[in-house]
Amino acid sequence: MGDKHRVRFEPVGIEIEVDEEQTVLRQASEQGLMLMHGCKEGQCAACKSFVLDGDDIELDRYSTFALPDYEKEEGFTLLCRAHVYEDVTIELLNFDEEMIRSGLPIVNAVAEVVSIGKVTHDLRHLVLKLIEPSEITFFPGQYMDIKVPGTEVTRSFSMASTNGRELEFVIKVYPDGVFSSFLDGQLTTGDRLELTGPFGVFTLRDAPDRDLIFVGGGAGLAPILGLLRSMAERGIDRKAVFYYGARTAKDLCFVSEIEALKEKLPGFRFVPALSEPAEGESWDGEVGFITDVLKRYEADLSGAHAYLCGPPPMVEAAMPLLASLGTPEKHIYYDKFTTTGGED
Ligand SMILES: Cc1cc2nc3c(=O)[nH]c(=O)nc-3n(C[C@H](O)[C@H](O)[C@H](O)COP(=O)(O)OP(=O)(O)OC[C@H]3O[C@@H](n4cnc5c(N)ncnc54)[C@H](O)[C@@H]3O)c2cc1C
Ligand code: FES
Questions:
Q1: Would the pTM of this model clear 0.85, i.e. be above it?
Q2: What top-level class would CATH report for the domain 107-199?
Q3: ∠ CA 338-8-328 to the nearest 5 degrees?
Q4: Is the peptide bond preceding residue 105 cis, with omega within 30 degrees of 0?
Q5: Which residues line ligand 1 (CB under 6 A)?
Q6: CA of 79 to the centre of ligand 2 (A)
Q7: Given this model, what pLDDT does residue 344 score?
Q8: Can you give the pLDDT at residue 341?
Q9: Which of 119, 337, 338 to mutate to test the pocket of ligand 1 (most atoms within 8 A of CB)?
Q10: How far is the centre of ligand 2, averaged over its atoms, from the C-alpha of 269 (Å)?
């Protein structure tokens, strides 16, 4: 433990104490303050903020794509990488006051593998049972960091489940990925894993009069499935559409469960689409990039809240499209599944 300093966040007027050895974002999460973030690795810029007062701030390794040198000189910083060595005041640039204050403190947990299912050629359905503590509290749509045993490597995975005793994940396996190789090569039923969380702001905002647009690609299905399941459990009957993009039919999963959710969610439509249907594949659904499919269906989304999740290019393509269809930027919520391996 190092010396502690006060960090004040504006314009929300919240103050926390931050240990020099911890990043500001991590310390805020430990105190239940849910600040906007994505990768937590200095890669995505989601946590970018402005230093209003204080100079003695040092950053752990980060990508200059997320924080170019000229921005750093102007006073911008990345909260996921920032250690403070004096009292500072930070202006949050991207925040949702309701979410900040509704945060749950993160916990370190141990869980046991219940099952690892192969739901497509490169997607796995991992189910874990919590051992210590036996239950955690999270909001559907949030994610956990899972540690690769015997290393200091952690990877973030969004929860598709809605209760805090058994956690479900949908995980894409990358060739030579650190977690991927461990998941496919070593992990078996009964093994124990260390997890930390919950993290994330991909959670359903309370706005009963707003329609919902979900856009997910690949494993980005996971937190959206979590949100839909939770809506079904809670009887939330907001009008909702899930645009689910995959490359070929063999890349789709959980389709029958999602179709069946229509029975419990009267205002729900499901639009799966394939960007490159394989030759000879029987498919009578939509074809095209999921953003192009959405554009064909929607003309005015000014009254909607949108939730985007999946690979960064999909999220980045969907954001301007939704904005052009009228969705206010502050009502576009997203999780980019940035990968850390092999990047600067
Ligand atoms: C908020 C959040 C939520 C997420 N939720 C999910 C989820 O629900 N499901 C999911 O599947 N993923 C999710 N991710 C992504 C996940 O955390 C991992 O990044 C991803 O699974 C890859 O991890 P890995 O260790 O298998 O691969 P990594 O080792 O990180 O490698 C990733 C890719 O980089 C390549 N690579 C590795 N090293 C090099 C190198 N030296 N040079 C070039 N290329 C290299 C690998 O081959 C692979 O293609 C989420 C990410 C974030 C930020
Ligand atoms: S750069 Fe800080 S969360 Fe991604």
A1: yes
A2: mainly beta
A3: 50
A4: no
A5: 38-39, 143, 155-158, 169-172, 174-180, 200, 219, 222, 335, 337-342
A6: 7
A7: 35
A8: 63
A9: 337
A10: 33
Task: Give me 206's structure tokens.
Answer: 């309370």
> Whose structure tokens read 């093994």?
191
Token output for 230 = 């939770």
For the chain, residues with pLDDT lower than 70 are 341-344
Instruction: Choose one of 24, 39, 50, 154 to mutate for the ligand 2 pocket test, by most ligand atoms within 8 angstroms of C-beta.
Output: 39
**Ligand 2 atom at minimum distance from 40 CA:** 3
Say which CATH topology domain 4-100 has.
Answer: Ubiquitin-like (UB roll) (3.10.20)
Where in the chain are the domains? 4-100, 107-199, 211-336
Q: Which ligand is nearest to the CA of 147?
A: 1
Q: Under a CB-based contact definition with an 8 Å cutoff, are residues 230 and 162 in contact?
A: yes
- Token pair recorded at residue 176: 């030579």
pLDDT at site 61: 96
Q: CB within 6 Å of ligand 2 — which residues?
A: 37-40, 42-47, 66, 78, 80
- Say if 4-100 and 211-336 have the same CATH topology: no
Q: What is the pLDDT of residue 343?
A: 42
User: Is 271 in contact with 215 (CB distance < 8 Å)?
Assistant: no
Q: Specify the pLDDT at position 95.
A: 84
**Domain 211-336 sits in CATH 3.40.50.80:** yes
- Which atom, in ligand 1's list, is nearest to the CA of 175? 47
Question: How remote is the CA of residue 176 from the centroid of ligand 1, in Å?
Answer: 10
Rounded distance between C-alpha atoms, residue 225 and residue 261, angstroms = 10
Task: Check residue 5 and give its pLDDT.
Answer: 97
Q: Residue 94: its pLDDT value, please?
A: 83
